[in-house]
Amino acid sequence: MKIRLRVNSEERAYEGDAFKRLLDVLREDFALTGTKEGCGEGECGACTVLLDGKPVNSCLIPICQAEGRSVETVESLGLPDRLDALQKAFLEEGGAQCGACTPGMLLSAAAHLRSKGRTDERSIRASIGGNLCRCTGYQHIVKSIQKAAKAMNKKRSHAR
Amino acid sequence: MRGDSFAARVMRPAAAAEAARLYAANPDALPLAGGTDLMVAWNSGRLNGRAILDLSRLSEWRSIGVAAECVRIGSLVTHAEIESHPVILKRLGLLAEACSRVGAVQVRNRGTLGGNIANASPAGDSFPALAVYEAFVHTLSREGRRSLPLLDVFAGVKKTALKRGELIERIDVPFLSKPPARLLFRKVGSREEQTLSKTVAAGLLWLGKGGRVSELRFAFGSVAPTVRRLKAAEAFLRGRRLSRPVVERACELVAEDISPIDDIRSTRQYRMIVSQNILRSFLIG
């Protein structure tokens, strides 16, 4: 089966089995290994990507259901030489330890901030409620996201 | 991943009539909506060799329609779409709240109301709200359409009363004819998000003259093989004032309609006591 989709703003074509997981297509067919597999059963959120801008577990999506849709992976946020505000804040605040949950955390947080979600602690925690972290205890992740939100607001008000 | 993707035979109808025809011809195929439950089983390898009927291209089942007397929710509408729909938020608030407490963001963005019902988990968080609003489930098969009350859809743990070849097309949720005096949604789990409920409740209460109960509708999930309305307590309370002894009797009667079990998430005793406490605090007001 041939499937066309947008990945990180590029048109991509996949040819293969219709029921391969989006997670595996991203990693194996498109070499986008930033997306990690955690539990493989939709509990941990490590494999979170954005599908038409919304956080989803890529381990639970057969590639046929991504046909004609837009996928964003952690690589779309920024690369080491050009990090975005969230990635910078995670580095500065210790939002990442082992790093397995980080790509998913970043994308859930990005979707929340982009949709003008509230930045109080409770709202931030709800936005990453589907992303489990076994290292940080979450405090530093929440701080990182709040710091990024501030930085992004500042940038926005400067641009005005 | 142990799911053998190369063994999958996937059918992808583009229209409802085609879906019904394919399902009639392949009644052992597994209907796939948002995949939040099916793909978990698939990834484990338990479904290897099964044919899949992917419904995701049926755009006609993906919209919410507002009629004079009800909201018609297409079976492929996601929990995220329901929790943010302005009319549902305003007039069917318990359903919006229930959907906002299903899984976490990632699951709510994919999981559909029709898929949730067809999956028939005892812990379906939207079911108590649908039960107190007395929703109807509409189905389509090659033989035609029919509708049945939500409670009649569930036949047991992960079992529905849907016939072979029958697909859920939409769910109609009636508006209330009179605003209730009190309403409640309550989910009790181990954490706020991404948790399965130990008990989950929805309730609507109307009071008449002198504070007498004119109607109570109260439902629990996760405490029986299927979602349960509290038939005994609802009947007992009709026409009574909510005095302390009356409330206590109603709480005792909860045991007539629910039958919680010990499992990995909780105990029978905890679920019973917490369920009774939820009803008690709702009735005391």
Tell me what you see in this structure.
- Chain A is an alpha+beta fold and 160 residues long.
- Chain A folds into two domains: 2-76, Beta-grasp domain (Ubiquitin-like (UB roll)); 85-159, [2Fe-2S]-binding domain (DNA polymerase, domain 1).
- Chain A has five helices and five strands.
- A five-stranded mixed β-sheet of chain A has the order 2-1-5-3-4, with helices on both faces.
- In chain A, helix 2 crosses helix 5 (139-159).
- The radius of gyration of chain A is 16 Å and the shape is globular.
- Chain B has 285 residues and is an alpha+beta fold.
- Classes of the chains: A alpha+beta (160), B alpha+beta (285).
- Chains A and B meet through strand 4 and helix 4 of A and helix 2 and helix 6 of B.
Summarize the helices and strands and which ones pair or pack.
The complex is a heterodimer of chains A (160) and B (285).
Chain A: E1 2-7, E2 10-15, H1 22-29, E3 48-51, E4 54-57, E5 70-72, H2 85-93, H3 102-114, H4 121-127, H5 139-159
Parallel strand pairs in A: 1-5
Antiparallel strand pairs in A: 1-2, 3-4, 3-5
Chain B: E1 9-11, H1 16-25, E2 30-32, H2 38-43, E3 51-54, E4 64-66, E5 70-74, H3 79-83, H4 86-91, H5 93-100, H6 105-108, H7 113-119, H8 127-132, E6 136-141, E7 144-149, H9 150-153, E8 154-156, E9 159-160, E10 167-174, E11 182-188, E12 199-207, E13 213-221, E14 228-229, H10 231-237, H11 244-257, H12 268-284
Parallel strand pairs in B: 1-3, 2-3
Antiparallel strand pairs in B: 4-5, 5-10, 6-7, 6-10, 8-9, 11-12, 12-13, 13-14
